[in-house]
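Cross-check.
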Amino acid sequence: MGFIEDVTTWFWNMFVYMNVVGGAMGCWMVGGWGLLWDDDDGALMQQCYNLWGGLAVTFPVTFESSYAEAS
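Predicted model, tokenized:
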């Protein structure tokens, strides 16, 4: 089952990576409007990052299934 676990971990890390990248791009786009129209010195972008959770992830992220056997 080592190969299946490795593939599952890889897919889980890709899912987490895409969420982090999507959040960073979204906050950058929202924060860009704040910088352009409100001249808020990045306050809107910082609020978006705080709402999203900071976007700090340490890879590799391990995935533990509730159905996995105890090791």
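The chain has two helices and no strands. The mean pLDDT is 80. Passed to J.P. for a second look.
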